[in-house]
Design goal:
Layout lengths: L3 E4 L3 E7 L5 E7 L4 H14 L10 E5 L6 E5 L6 H6 L9 H21 L4 E2 L8 E3 L5 E3 L6 E2 L7 E2 L11 H6 L1 E2 L1 H17 L15 H10 L3 H4 L2 H6 L2 H14 L10 H14 L31 E3 L2 E3 L3 E2 L12
């Protein structure tokens, strides 16, 4: 049906309309599965601790229905994956946009890891979880497998979660997830932005199927400019491409301890933008609010059979079945 925006591991995402006409995205679990319900509840708990302009807002939830529902702000321009791989000649993804999106995503991860009062690891950073708003700003989504960490914890040991192609090899081997595992996944996203290649490349050679391995091999053999996306080669200075490539390589170091922190990554990306003469609105960590328990003092949501947003209760979420979807990509 044309109200479906996308489908993923956690469930199906629909285009919805609330009682006041506000367009929203509604994620509905596919099946009554205890583990999926736990992921939905986990996402509510995590997002209730985050107030950041580059994180998708959770507007409401309903966990008492047959299957759980989560209601989010609607993000109109799809996700980064589709924008990289299905870009049009009329509106290509420019070098400036790539740098800006990378900087925004890095800023979110830096905030989650080190500025929040309880550090949060996302655990599934990938280009399909980076949505683009009406101004093509980055919005991080899908916190179902994310975890809050006690201040004195440096890692957690869990069943391995993540997406093949973005998964930290060190985490895969040890089942110990650290902040540096998010750094590795972000490095793969940087490699996607630089090369225009998918995290898992659709080729016959097993050796080059992984973008991470393909990228690191090209760097080792000084073949970087042979694999860089044509749009990047056309617009960017070679020194800047090389600087971002070296940063990407550091993020994907097989030894997690040798990877930079996301705060260091963010600082370096901002310096590269500054060297390009791009005006930067410094989204300093100090100005980003972090509140415990609520998204912020004026915006609450509550679980139950109705959704709460800014004090008004929606008895139901109605789906605009007859309308064309505003996005048609995978969630």
């Amino acid at each position: 049906m044309n109200r479906i925006l996308g489908q993923g591991g956690q469930g199906t995402v629909y285009k919805g309309m609330l009682a006041d006409g506000k367009i929203v995205a509604v994620k509905r679990s596919k099946v009554v599965d205890e583990s999926k319900v736990e992921e939905f509840i986990n996402e509510v708990v995590i997002l209730s601790q985050i107030n950041h302009r580059n994180v998708v807002q959770l507007l409401g939830c309903c966990l008492e229905t047959e299957v759980p529902l989560l209601v989010y702000e609607f993000i109109p321009n799809g996700n980064l994956f589709d924008y990289i791989y299905y870009q049009s000649q009329e509106f290509p993804i420019t070098w400036e946009m790539r740098l800006r999106i990378a900087g925004e995503v890095a800023g979110v991860l830096s905030y989650l890891h080190s500025a929040a009062s309880i550090p949060i690891y996302h655990r599934d950073i990938k280009s399909t979880n980076i949505l683009l708003d009406d101004k093509y700003g980055a919005k991080i989504s899908d916190f179902g497998t994310s975890r809050s960490m006690a201040i004195d914890q440096t890692h957690m040991t869990t069943q391995v979660h993540g997406t093949f192609g973005y998964l930290d090899p060190e985490y895969f081997r040890s089942s110990q997830f650290t902040d540096k595992s998010d750094v590795y996944s972000f490095g793969v996203v940087l490699a996607e932005l630089l090369t225009g290649e998918k995290a898992i490349r659709l080729i016959n050679s097993e050796e080059d199927k992984s973008l991470a391995a393909y990228f690191l091999s090209a760097m080792k053999e000084n073949r970087l400019f042979e694999i860089v996306d044509a749009q990047v080669l056309k617009e960017a200075k070679k020194d800047d491409i090389l600087t971002v490539a070296k940063l990407t390589k550091k993020c994907m170091n097989l030894n997690g301890k040798k990877r930079p922190t996301m705060k260091e990554v963010t600082t370096e990306l901002l310096e590269i933008k500054a060297s390009n003469g791009v005006s930067i609105v410094q989204k300093s960590l100090e100005e980003m609010d972090y509140t415990q328990g609520d998204i912020n003092s004026s915006r609450n949501f509550e679980t139950g059979s109705s959704f709460t947003f800014s004090g008004s209760v929606f008895e139901s979420a109605t789906f605009s079945v007859d309308a064309d979807p505003l996005i048609s990509n995978k969630w």
